[in-house]
Write a structure and sequence with these properties.
By secondary structure, this protein is an alpha+beta fold. It is built from five helices and seven strands, in the order αβαβαααβββββ. The protein has two domains: 27 residues; 119 residues, Mannose-Binding Protein A, Chain A, CATH 3.10.100.
């Protein structure tokens, strides 16, 4: 290959690459990009009221769903049962921080996740064994509610 032609080809390739980058920059600037991240807010009660209500907060699945739907905390009305994945993610948080974040204890908690398409069984999650298991809806288990909070990060 001719050594004189090589720099011309490199210059041409660099010009083409710069042109493409400039076009992409124009496209990105012309239309705004919105990135939304979702975070979870867990039901959180004062320790004293939690201790008083510990036994009363064990429900059948349908009652647990109703409890979360009717819950009003800090003027928020969009509470729900968490999914099995959301409860499992709490195991990644140290136990002391988990207690401060969601007030979950070493108990079995209902999730909103049905076992397949069966509305008679739902996944539960145990913070005693840190495992999930299917359970029929007519068992008494603990409940903690959660809500999704959306926040715009980049506009």
């Amino acid at each position: 290959m001719d050594r004189e032609k090589l720099p011309k080809k490199i210059k041409y390739a660099v010009c083409v690459l710069l042109s493409v980058l400039i076009l992409w920059a124009i496209v990105l600037v012309a239309r705004p990009i919105t990135l939304q991240l979702s975070t979870l807010q867990w039901e959180h009660k004062e320790a004293d009221s939690w201790q008083l209500q510990r036994y009363e907060r064990r429900f059948w699945h349908e009652e647990a769903e109703h409890y979360c739907r009717q819950l009003t905390l800090n003027e928020h009305y969009d509470w729900r049962l968490p999914t099995v994945d959301e409860l499992q993610d709490l195991t990644q948080v140290a136990a002391g921080k988990r207690l401060n974040l969601a007030r979950v204890e070493r108990a079995i908690y209902w999730t909103a996740t049905p076992v397949h398409s069966d509305n008679q069984r739902y996944w539960v999650f145990s913070f005693l064994t840190e495992q999930s298991a299917p359970m029929t809806q007519h068992n008494y288990n603990s409940v903690v509610c959660v809500r999704t909070v959306n926040g715009v990060v980049l506009d």
